[in-house]
Amino acid sequence: MTSVNMQTLAGEKMALSSSDVERFESSLKGDVIRSSDTAYDESRSIWNGMIDRKPSLIARCKDRDDVVAAVNFSRKHNLMTSIRSGGHHVAGKSICDEGLVIDLTQMNSVEVDPDKHIARVQGGAKLGDLDEATSPYNLIAPIGVVSETGVAGLTLHGGFGWNSRKHGLASDNLISVEIVTADGKVIRASNSENSDLFWALRGGGGNFGVATEFEFRLHPIESEVWLLFTIYPLSEAKKCMEYFRDNIQDTPEEFGIIEVFWSAPDADFIPEEYRGEPVLVSLGCFTGDPDEGEKVIAPFRKIAEPIADLSEKMPFKEIQKVLDEDFPNGRHYYWKSVYINEVNDNIIERITEHAKKRPSPLSSVDVWALGGKVNRVDPESTAFYQRNAPYMIGIEANWNDPDDSEANIQWARDIHDEFKNDLDAGLYLNFPGFAEEGEEMLAKTYGPNYRRLKDIKTKYDPDNFFRGFMNLSGNGSK
Ligand SMILES: Cc1cc2nc3c(=O)[nH]c(=O)nc-3n(C[C@H](O)[C@H](O)[C@H](O)COP(=O)(O)OP(=O)(O)OC[C@H]3O[C@@H](n4cnc5c(N)ncnc54)[C@H](O)[C@@H]3O)c2cc1C
Is residue 48 within 8 Å of residue 434, measured between CB atoms? Predict the structure, then answer.
């Protein structure tokens, strides 16, 4: 076998001997994929079809020891390295060109302690793995709203979901994180062990090591809860958004809602004249008592005459799958976000205009209601700083034809640029586009926590080995 061409951390080319790679592979329970392997293209492809990076080696780890071996091997040869869990981050930094990918996708087991209300989740699990494991006990972890998303990236960068108003961010519900650091040590971070690292991991992303296990605090839920899924014509968006704005903060915190400016699906339940047309979808979930939930969502279902109302009571884990098919792997995506202070008439009008101008009918503008518990956590008690915004606009450009990339990306950037000074609070790092803004944006996003975060990065990763998404030692994006 010939040697493998690699890129070093310093950006230089080097050739790794095949015997080194073979020895590395034989030390793993998992395997190592090379560019000549049939599994190569599948293994390097991720959710965002815009990303076409070509790593030289993909170490498909089976357990924590494999991760330690991969980190040690990579360090020894000073290789460019990336960490892949769900592979769902829009910027696609889980895959590096000509480097080594530490792939955790096979490390997806979840262990639940129903008495202590704790879940131990391996680093490569998806939200669906977690929901599947907790649902038999009528428990949930506060995570995101699409079952295919990776737990690791979502949690390390914060994590908003249906019950954030009630229970806070996903990262607020961590009890501890097991992590493999750049020197190949396995350590645990919690309030009582390596507490500075634990502070940093709750919002600071993949800068500090490979997270191999997350320990989450769980919360009780009924076996079935209410999904709000009401589709209104865009002509009623003003009325719906006014109702949302005037009432949402008075609803119980068990209610999570996203107002989605989107397109009506081409489906039997949509009258023909509306199929593919711009609509407003009131999408939500009430994770508390279902009888109360039915009453709370009722007015949101009849603000105007809906085109369709798919709201129903169902198991939480099924609600988490409702959007899965709308975001298939391999489509082209560019998602960005901006925090806003209010949803006034002018903002409603501007969002509606942008929705009408979407270059792709698959794209959406989403208004998330935040606040509640997210807001009550001291912004300096974890690295995740921007907790005061009552709303976030998620700008989701989704398209199929690569020739349409420029127009779709520009559409998303224009909306972001138009609203970014409303709160001037940086970005939500799980919806950051390709993080073009670099350090300036990081400084705004982390506010007064930024300095401390950089210091903790220097302490735990002095040589800047972990350079995935939003590098705290570099200029932000490199
Ligand atoms: C369809 C879809 C729905 C979404 N819904 C929500 C939502 O409801 N709420 C929300 O808040 N966000 C949501 N997101 C955004 C999502 O949270 C981010 O994309 C998240 O980063 C994905 O995590 P991942 O494990 O798939 O990341 P990956 O793409 O695998 O990794 C991204 C980066 O995270 C870091 N990282 C990943 N795994 C590890 C690890 N084990 N240890 C250390 N660092 C690691 C690395 O820096 C890596 O480069 C959604 C995304 C998609 C695509």
Answer: no
